[in-house]
Amino acid sequence: MTAALVQSDPTQPGPPGSVVISVDAMGGDRGPAAVIAGIAKSAQKNPDIRFIVHGPEPELRRLIARRSKLVGRCDIRHAESVVTMDDKPAQVVRSAQGTSMWSAVESVRNGEATVAVSCGNTGALMALSMLRLRKLPGVNRPAIAVLWPSRGPQGFNIILDVGADIRADATDLLQYAMMGASYARNGMGLARPRVGLLNVGTEDHKGRPELKEAHRLIAAAAAVEGANMDYIGFVEGGDLMSARVDVIVTDGFTGNVALKTGEGTAKLVGDFLKDAFANSIMSKFAALLAMTSLKRLQKRIDPRRVNGGVFLGLNGTVVKSHGAADATGVSAAVKLAFQLARSGFNDRLKARVAQAAEAAEQAGPAEGWEEPAPQDAASGRAPQAEV
To answer: Is it the case that residue 380 has pLDDT exceeding 70?
Structure first.
């Protein structure tokens, strides 16, 4: 039976404690049906979420009408065009008006929604977000932060940047550390997150000059009273999933390579397990006996449960869902968006960025250190997001 669609206006005051999330329903590999199914799952679990949904109105109206949990909780914003996965960020910036992605970010810019969620083209979404929301004062390069399965008590570590920009100098890495720690406190409930700087070794003398300078700056910032984070120094690739660190800081090139390598390795191990258990009748019987444990393992490493990269360093919060996300993945991204919105994350992030700038100024440059010129600001190039 099809539920009647009751249109709401999320810009008007909702129930006490309600949070409005702007959702780009288009651009994902699975189309708007998966996105609507995902926000319906979130609506069923959380009565405090309301949505502004962007895309072709006739199609969205039909899909939303089938979901009784969305009755009275969605406002549809008509947008004819869609940013595809093949569109170049520079082209999107020039012709994005009228697309569902532009409309979704615009709702955050206008204060109608607290967070925007999109499954679309990462580079285009970052470029549009920078164009419409602008960077926070003092931020040179925004970052994309993702959750990484780990042995820690919370089950996940945060790694940033994973592809917003392939470059990062010492002050950028300091800002990433402060923003990542803020994300850990507000998104994961860690009162005092442990921060590590990714390097080729843990010894102080190893690494490029900008890493050594960032090491000094982050250590100085963490020592300030009220920083509410612990800096554990350099960490290596093997620590990405370890229990000794909560936030791993790196440049976008290294982070993106690590992310894609981890995804590929997880898939390879999964394929090996399937082949091993399908090898013989005894193997299939063993798989049947181990089914409960295998399902528990599958759930723990299921990337859909931690779907959502957060754009940090902007005047507004944007959550990037995986392009191939199904309803479960979209629901996880919406859950993350809700947690960040409810915690007042962006206001706290602004304070941390200001604190990072103050810490860098107080620490001063190391002897012989020269800060590189910010090339992006001079060239006007769009960020090189490649997640």
So the answer is: no
DSSP-derived secondary structure for 60-79: HHHHHHT-GGGTTSEEEEE-
Spatial separation of the C-alpha atoms in residues 307 and 332, rounded to whole Å? 6
How far is it, in rounded angstroms, from Cα 268 to Cα 259?
A: 14
Long-range contacts of 213-218 (CB under 8 A, 24+ apart): 213/170, 213/365, 213/366, 213/369, 214/169, 214/170, 214/171, 214/173, 214/174, 214/177, 214/249, 216/363, 216/366, 217/170, 217/171, 217/173, 217/174, 217/359, 217/360, 217/363, 218/173, 218/174, 218/177, 218/249
Question: Hey, is 92 helix, strand or coil?
Answer: helix
User: What is the Cα Rg of the chain in Å?
Assistant: 21
Residue 366's CB is within 10 A of a number of other CB atoms, namely: 13
Greatest Cα pair distance in the chain: 72
| pLDDT above 60 for 7 | no
Output the pLDDT for position 359.
67
Look at residue 382 in the predicted model and tell me its pLDDT: 44
* Rounded-to-integer distance, Cα 377 and Cα 54, Å: 31
Indicate the domain borders of the chain: 145-304
**Count H helices, E strands: the chain?**
13, 11
The CATH topology of domain 145-304 is: Isopropylmalate Dehydrogenase (3.40.718)
Query: Residue 52 — left, alpha, or beta (φ > 0 → left; ψ -120 to 50 → alpha)?
Result: beta
Q: What is the rounded average pLDDT of the residues 68-72?
A: 86
